[in-house]
Design goal:
With 96 residues, this protein is α/β, with parallel strands linked by helices. A 5-stranded mixed beta sheet has the order 3-2-1-4-5, sandwiched between helices. The chain starts with a strand and ends with a helix. The chain is 26% helix and 35% strand. It has one domain: 2-Layer Sandwich (Nucleotidyltransferase, domain 5). Strand 2 and strand 3 form a beta hairpin. It is globular and about 30 Å long.
Length: 96
């Protein structure tokens, strides 16, 4: 099964929402806003990520580089405020 993750990044903590290809929420969690911590959370073999949507912001370049270097399929996105984060980010990158 394919999975998609949306990350709502804040200075200390990032909210993470993982959905499957049907849009069902598989997991919601928080992790430290540091590349190594996010890679550890997102590298769980339970997930087969097609795409990971990282909210554009002040930390995005640093986090994007760390996730990409770890081989994760990360993209930077602008998430419209009405969608709600991080679920909206995950839904934005999931094909419909």
């Amino acid at each position: 099964m394919k999975h998609y993750a949306g990350l709502d990044v804040a200075v200390k903590e990032s909210a993470i929402c993982i959905v499957d290809e049907t849009g069902k929420i598989c997991r919601e969690m928080k992790g430290e806003s540091h590349p190594e911590d996010l890679v550890r959370v997102l590298s769980d073999p339970a997930w087969t990520f097609e795409r990971i949507g990282l909210e554009a912001g002040p930390l995005s370049q640093w986090l994007f580089s760390g996730l990409a270097e770890a081989g994760l399929p990360v993209v930077c996105i602008e998430n419209p405020p009405h969608q709600g984060l991080p679920r909206g980010a995950a839904e934005q990158i999931r094909p419909h």
